[in-house]
Specification:
Elements (H helix, E strand, L loop, with lengths): L2 E5 L5 H12 L4 H5 L5 H17 L3 E8 L5 E8 L14 H18 L7 H15 L8 E8 L8 H15 L4 E6 L3 H6 L2 E10 L8 E9 L9
Helix pairs in contact: 1-3, 4-5
GO molecular function: acyltransferase activity, transferring groups other than amino-acyl groups
Pfam families: Acetyltransf_1
Protein name: N-acetyltransferase domain-containing protein
Length: about 230
């Protein structure tokens, strides 16, 4: 498969919502947070979230297109620090934006989520990751907030291409890249130079859900490891 990468545009949002749901339904968060909520309602929440992300100048939503069909097959969300006027440091670090997003998620759980949402899981999940991240995330870090490939296109180089896009830009600015890896994604990140910082076990039963999910906090130092081939 020949893959083309480009910045997302608003008309991509419905497809990106679909990719998000299909790629992560088996991870536990979606099924535990929205038990019994109609698919169309969850899809609309995801679509609106992508539009909000696209509007933020520090967030780069990158999509992967199949060159032959033009279909979107994957996407990634990268957060870069905002450079100051002298090109030094950051006016607002990626970590600050992650904190803001967690706060917005918590607010949304109280105000905007549909009937049937497990609000405890929605707020608790983000709060745990926010608190854990404070020990590791620097203001001048790049954050890989999200990356997903449609299940039928996994193993075809889509994820590697999306990773390469962000790694090349982070390397050019000599920045670390922070992320929260699923168990399935962990080997890919390790091969591309990320190192594990801490394992976080999310127990959904504490909020009335089912099962557990393990995420690994990771960081990639500049010039550490080869680019994804």
């Amino acid at each position: 498969m020949v893959i083309n990468l480009r910045p997302a545009v608003p008309s991509d949002a419905p497809t990106l919502a679909d990719i998000n749901i299909k790629a992560f339904t088996g991870q536990g968060f979606i099924t535990n947070t929205f038990p019994g909520v109609p698919h169309a309602v969850v899809h609309e929440l995801k679509r609106a979230r992508y539009l909000r992300k696209m509007a933020h100048p520090q967030t780069h939503v990158i999509v992967a297109e199949d060159d032959a069909s033009g279909a979107l097959v994957g996407c990634a969300r990268w957060i870069f620090p905002a450079a100051d006027g002298n090109g030094n440091g950051s006016v607002k670090g990626a970590g600050d934006l992650v904190d803001e997003d967690s706060a917005e998620a918590a607010k949304g759980a109280e105000e905007a989520l549909p009937e049937g949402t497990n609000r405890g899981i929605y707020t608790g999940f983000f709060e745990i990751l926010k608190e854990k991240g404070k020990a590791y995330l620097r203001d001048d870090d790049v954050v890989l907030e999200f990356i997903a490939t449609l299940p039928q296109h996994q193993g075809q180089g889509v994820g590697k291409a999306l990773l390469r896009w962000g790694i090349e830009r982070a390397e050019a600015e000599h920045r670390r890249i922070y992320l929260e890896a699923t168990t399935e994604g962990l080997p890919v990140y390790e091969k591309s130079g990320w190192r594990a910082l801490e394992q976080v076990d999310i127990d959904y039963t504490r909020w009335g859900g089912q099962g557990e999910q393990t995420l690994t906090l990771m960081v990639r130092d500049p010039r550490s490891g080869s680019l994804p081939a």
